[in-house]
Amino acid sequence: MRCLGVMVAVTLVAGHCAAQAAAPGVAPSACGYLTQTMLAQASGPVLLASYPTQHSGALSAAAFTYDNSVAAIALVACGQIAQSRRVADALLFALDHDRFWHDGRLRNGYAAGSIGGGTLRLAGWWDANTRRWLEDGYQAGSDSGNMAWAMLALLTLHASTGDARYRDGAVRLAHWVEGQLDTRGAGGFTGGEFGHEPEPVHQGWKSTEHNADLAAAFLWLARTTSDAHWQTLAHRAQQFVRAMWDADHSYFAVGTAPDGVNINPLLALDAQIWPLMALPGAARQYAAAIQTSDRRLRFNAGYTYSEVGGGLWSEGTAQVAVLLGLLHRDAAAQTVRAALQSQHTEDGGYYASDVAATPTGFMLATDPSKPRVYFHLEHLGAGAWAALSEQRYNPFTGHSDLPR
């Protein structure tokens, strides 16, 4: 599943929006918020802070690859291609300027800000107890799903600009992710690598959401390159996702245990919504997943992260709004977007959660004694998905439609 943070309790015709200030007392659109955020940065390639109001600890100045990838896609959906290129260019820079890796992987997170010369820094923080500068093991690692989102962002920019650098960057990422292909159980792709160089820990678990991301990214790459190899890998990822469908209970299991075989039966929202947007025909074949989400994951007119409950998850609520819009269920989509609006920050962004900490049902890889949660903090990923919902834009296809 998408990792939420770090060593804390814890990615057509484009629509257009004006980057103008909203009227007094009216929050700007999500597109306007993203555009203003970009315009506030120094010129050139940039990675945006995932939690811009957090100024201490592991989330401080952390730019997660997933959040920035979704933001780059959302900026294209908003008609802000030049601004989107700045984020995509930063991802390309990261591919070539890691302090250790030169094998086509990105890390899960970097230090936010303008990208200059030299190697790309990771975010970190000063620990007063140990009197040391620390870096988080999750941010130093490389989740397969995050690599898929970076691929999707680069392919979106390639489709929008024709710049071959973005396509070539996506190919490099795809070759690295191919190394995560697994033969155990239902096949598919494992979670990736956790921890610092030179020997990160291989993650043997497999995620429904990760494999849905990869299926879409490989399909897009196959169309772009006319290389059937990527079509084959897309099929492998799709097979895994479809194997996670529980027909008796009408939902997708979240994935597998570390053995790659035994199913983790947790009901999580993104594992229901993303396959329907990413896999050809899935919105029709697995439509019951929407009803299951409505019945078991609704929270305060929006949606929570998983069956554990405990708070509204803004990002996931926006994801449901995107899907409903793509299905032309406009009234339902508007109702969900109205719930999302309650999570506006003063500057037009969105809180990750409406409560202090929304649990996910997972524990932290960095500290298995602590739960992974979403905090009541302004969150780039939530704002980016809100923009996608405004524009009715499918990040898995680069259009306002479902894959066929």
Blueprint of the fold:
Elements lengths: L29 H10 L6 E2 L14 E3 H13 L3 H16 L12 E3 L1 E2 L10 E3 L4 E3 L2 H4 L1 E2 H18 L2 H15 L11 E5 L6 E6 L1 H18 L2 H16 L1 E2 L4 E2 L2 E2 L6 E2 L4 H10 L3 H4 L2 H9 L1 E2 L2 E2 L10 H13 L3 H12 L15 E7 L7 E5 L4 H12 L13
Antiparallel strand pairs: 1-4, 2-3, 5-6, 7-8, 8-9, 10-11, 12-13, 14-15, 16-17
Helix pairs in contact: 1-14, 2-3, 2-5, 2-14, 3-5, 5-6, 5-7, 6-7, 7-8, 7-9, 9-12, 12-13, 12-14
Give a short summary of the structure.
By secondary structure, the protein is an alpha+beta fold. The chain has helices spanning 30-39, 65-77, 81-96, 137-140, 144-161, 164-178, 208-225, 228-243, 269-278, 282-285, 288-296, 314-326, 330-341, 380-391; strands at 46-47, 62-64, 109-111, 113-114, 125-127, 132-134, 142-143, 190-194, 201-206, 245-246, 251-252, 255-256, 263-264, 298-299, 302-303, 357-363, 371-375. The two termini are 25 Å apart.
